[in-house]
Design a protein that fits this description.
The chain has helices spanning about 5-10, 25-35, 55-70, 90-100, 115-125, 140-145, 170-180, 195-205, 215, 225-235, 255-265, 270-275, 280-285, 310-320; strands at about 15, 40, 75-80, 105-110, 130-135, 150-155, 165, 185-190, 210, 240-245, 245-250. With about 325 residues, the protein is of the alpha/beta class. It is globular, with a radius of gyration of 18 Å. The termini are close together. The mean pLDDT is about 95.
Length: about 325
């Protein structure tokens, strides 16, 4: 299914795996790319403990990039976090940049609260393709991002997993509005788990999908089997949500999640953070369904089996071609 996104990224199918914290790895990324999509190494890819310095973090990523190259000759991408808040530079970002250049990575999924122009410019000087995902997307913000020189835009609706937009705008509302306003390729994210969702995204003007939760429940994903089983048994009405910093977080009702919600409702945000701050790793990677959080799309209620990455992609493409 050739379009501007597949041509831009030199991939067979317009399906990109999300840059999920803790639960990507070289094996998983290569499986997505070998199946015709674009695999993406996310934060802490392939690791089971957090790096303590920018250099350690970057070297961990370098090792994972090299593993991917051993497992596939297909394109893949790396997550790139723009400096946040008022910062225009970040030592972790700069260390990652050096590794991208040295390892000749050619595609990044750049995320941020806004586009950082000097980051775009130095990536483009290395001929790196930039797919930008705003953490709190609006029509106006992505119209502004288009002017920066990025190559494509991920439009994430509130249905998505992980930390969700503070604006709570759905994929159904956001994607068609932005697709009408920008000339860059639009990639839809949030609540897409199958061919029906992908077909809807394309009908709204998207040219590719960016998908996380469905890819967690795959054989190659490094998430724990406990987390995968929790996704299979989840019901969309079970999830709880609470404010998390500047955005929001959704989780299955683990003990840690329920305690965090209780404390936030009492106005004790700092105390609540101690219950969910490391929740992605504890819940999704380690499989601790008491102390961790299972932060996935609310569409998880529609996922009923663990498949291989190739099976997920092939099912979606078969539906799109009907």
């Amino acid at each position: 299914m050739e379009n501007s996104v597949t041509n831009l990224l030199n991939i067979k199918y317009p399906i990109i795996s999300a840059a999920m914290t803790w639960i990507t790895s070289a094996e998983f990324v290569a499986a997505v790319s070998n199946a015709g999509g674009l695999g993406v190494l996310g934060p802490n890819a392939g690791q089971n403990k957090a790096a303590s310095t920018p250099l350690e973090n970057a070297e961990n990523l370098r090792n994972e990039i090299r593993k991917v190259k051993q497992l596939t000759d297909k394109p893949f991408a790396v997550n790139y976090i723009f400096p946040m808040g008022s910062a225009i530079e970040d030592p972790f970002t700069s260390a990652i940049y050096d590794v991208l250049v040295e390892e000749e990575v050619k595609i990044v999924i750049a995320i941020g609260q806004s586009v950082i122009q000097n980051e775009v410019e130095r990536l483009k000087k290395q001929n790196i393709t930039i797919i930008y995902r705003d953490l709190n997307p609006t029509v106006e913000k992505l119209m502004e991002a288009e002017k920066s020189g990025v190559d494509a835009l991920i439009v994430t609706g509130y249905e998505a997993g992980g930390h969700m937009s503070k604006f709570k705008i759905s994929t159904l509302s956001l994607v068609p509005q932005i697709a009408k306003k920008v000339s860059l390729p639009v990639i839809a994210a949030g609540g897409i788990i199958d061919g029906n969702g992908a077909k809807a995204a394309f009908a709204m003007g998207a040219e590719a999908i960016y998908m996380g939760t469905r890819f967690i429940a795959t054989t190659e994903n490094p998430a724990s089997i406990s987390a995968k089983k929790a996704i299979l048994t989840a019901k969309s009405e079970d999830f709880i949500e609470f404010k998390s910093g500047a955005s929001h977080l959704r989780t299955l009702p683990t003990e840690a999640g329920k305690k965090a919600l209780e404390l936030i409702n009492l106005g004790k945000a700092d105390e609540a953070y101690t219950y969910y701050g490391n929740g992605f790793k504890l819940g999704l990677l380690d499989g601790d369904l008491t102390k961790g959080t299972i932060s996935v799309s609310e569409a998880a209620g529609g996922i009923t089996e663990i498949l291989s990455c190739a099976e997920v992609i092939n099912q979606i493409m078969k539906h799109l071609k009907q």
